[in-house]
Write a structure and sequence with these properties.
The chain is an alpha+beta fold. Helix content is 28%, strand content 20%. The protein is built from 3 helices and 3 strands; from the N terminus they run ββαααβ. Strands 2-1-3 form a 3-stranded antiparallel beta sheet, with helices on one face. The protein is globular and about 35 Å long.
Amino acid sequence: MKGGRGLRDNHIYTLYRGDTYLMDGTLEEIAEKRGVKRVTLQWMLRPSYAKRYLSPPKRVPKRQCLTLTRLDGGEDADEDA
């Protein structure tokens, strides 16, 4: 099994605020540029984040919510083979 704690994730992610594109990069790059911890971005990928912020009842207007999405087919695509 690949992955685990302490290992670098070289996948590329995109960050949006509502429908507005903000940036893309690895989790480390996004965390550094946004001034947040990597674990914050990892939490944004979890179902609990989507349940709390992206699904009804909406606590925060959707246009203000940050969405982090992993792009498939990057340079690490053959990693799972």
